[in-house]
Amino acid sequence: MPEKQYVNKCKIVEKEFDNGGSVMNCAFNVDELQSMSQNGWVNITIAKRREPSEKGATHYAYKNEYKPKDSQTQSDELPF
Length: 80
Prior knowledge:
9% helix; single chain; mainly beta; 4 strands
């Protein structure tokens, strides 16, 4: 299994509302995502942190390396 390639230049903060809803505010560095891209796409997995960071980040991101066994996808389709 390949080592995870983390998105280091990002901040992801989940805001939970009183009614049970939530939103995730995300900021990513474009240059870092560009360096991870393949065929114009970057598959990112967002996972919840065990504890929020000192700066309030509640989640982290890493490049999803999943490759389907049958790679007959067209280039204009989403890769997942």
